[in-house]
Design a protein that fits this description.
The protein is an alpha/beta fold. It has two domains: 8-165, Spo0b-associated Gtp-binding Protein, Chain: A, CATH 2.70.210.12; 171-374, P-loop containing nucleotide triphosphate hydrolases (Rossmann fold, 3-Layer(aba) Sandwich), CATH 3.40.50.300. The chain is built from eight helices and 14 strands. Helix 4 runs parallel beside helix 6.
């Protein structure tokens, strides 16, 4: 009997490619003044209107890029042609395309990061409208009293854009399938991801808000588990890994007693290897080591495993012990996470250099992912 979800082709709705085209400028007008009693009126052809531009803006009401898969083309209005009596044509209507906060906008052809849209109220131009054409009035001179010259409006910019939506979370859960990530997020938040005793239960990212008190909370992201060669596109790997670019820190969960009989130390080193192969930026992100399901082993066996992990990973930091099912160690872990996140938020507010470094890191990650797409690494 097939297991649930086995064989399903699942795609994250977190990326899309769209085409945007700004409006063409209106043509200039060829016209001469014609009124009663004025036999030889001069030129009075007006200029065309400017083409409309395409903007992108973050809208907090949106949380998915799915709509862009059904509507991939966007075009701003074109400018109207000029008219006689020196009347300028109406400008083309600008177009604002709303995207979810956390969307990176990348030019597909050049790989340039155009915008990293985080907050509402800060629209960014992604395609500039065409310049308007000039009417013949513009070409009147002392030697040419009746010019017949005009110019046409210029076409607007056209671009193919890649939109990347990375989950904005404070903590990202990292680990092999069935390492206990979904159980942990169920234990410490109101999120209810599916939990079962077979791998790959989590097929899409889940977000949970962990609340420790009034105005003390953080967002935890439960991701699909990694497998070997995830960095090269195997399984759900590539689309999963890019989500980690925006997390403040990573919790690396190691199952102390894997259901498949595997070695926890080998499993942990394989995760680190996948991160390093995928992105140096993510591999350098702050990472905490957590032994999961410690209630399944005696204390001395857990201590022995921790010693092996420290040696294999050259781990100098703290190692947390938890059992999400039994609730052991979860409260202390969440308090430590909260304190680290509060310190991070305070530095973002008060230290401009620190905030700038964080933004540059995220932008670098977005560009790295864009290049990976271009090289055909995303097979998920």
């Amino acid at each position: 009997m097939p297991r649930p979800n086995q064989g399903r082709h699942v795609k994250f709705v977190d990326e899309a490619e769209i085409s945007v085209e700004a409006g063409k400028g209106g043509n200039g007008c060829l016209s001469f003044r014609r009124e009663k009693y004025i036999e030889f009126g001069g030129p009075d052809g007006g200029d065309g209107g400017a083409g409309g531009s395409v903007y992108m803006s973050a809208d907090p009401a949106l949380n998915t890029l799915v709509d862009f898969r059904f509507k991939p083309q966007y075009r701003a209005g074109s400018g109207r042609a000029g008219a006689g009596r020196n009347r300028t044509g109406a400008g083309g209507e600008d177009l604002t395309v709303d995207v979810p906060p956390g969307t990176s906008v990348i030019d597909v052809e050049t790989g340039e990061l155009i915008a990293d849209l985080r907050e509402a109220g800060h629209p960014v131009i992604v395609a500039k409208g065409g310049r308007p054409g000039l009417g013949n009035t513009r070409f009147k001179s002392s030697t040419n009293r009746a010019p017949r010259k005009t110019t046409d409006g210029e076409p607007g910019e056209a671009r193919k854009l890649q939109l990347q939506l990375s989950l904005v979370a404070d903590v990202g859960l990292l680990g092999l399938p069935n390492a206990g990530k979904s159980t942990l997020i169920r234990s410490v938040s109101a999120a209810r991801p599916k939990v079962a005793d077979y791998p790959f239960t989590t097929l899409i990212p889940n977000l949970g808000v962990v609340r420790l008190g009034p105005e003390r909370n953080f967002v935890m992201a439960d991701m699909p588990g990694l497998i070997e060669d995830a960095s090269a596109g195997a399984g759900l790997g590539f689309r999963f890994l890019k989500h980690l670019s925006r997390t403040r820190l990573l919790l690396h969960l190691v199952d102390v007693l894997p259901a498949d009989g595997g070695d926890p130390v080998a499993n942990a080193t394989s995760i680190v290897a996948e991160l390093e192969k995928f992105s140096e930026t993510i591999a350098a992100r702050e990472r905490w080591l957590v032994l999961s399901k410690v209630d399944l082993l005696p204390d001395d066996a857990v201590a022995e495993l921790e010693a092996r992990l420290r040696d294999a990973l050259d781990w100098q930091g703290e190692v947390y012990h938890i059992s999400a099912l039994a609730g052991t160690g979860c409260e202390g872990l969440c308090e430590a996470l909260m304190q680290a996140i509060e310190k991070h938020r305070e530095r973002l507010r008060e230290d401009a250099d620190y905030a700038g470094e964080q933004q540059k890191r995220e932008q670098k990650m977005a560009v790295e992912f864009g290049r990976g797409k271009a090289q055909g690494l995303d097979h998920a």
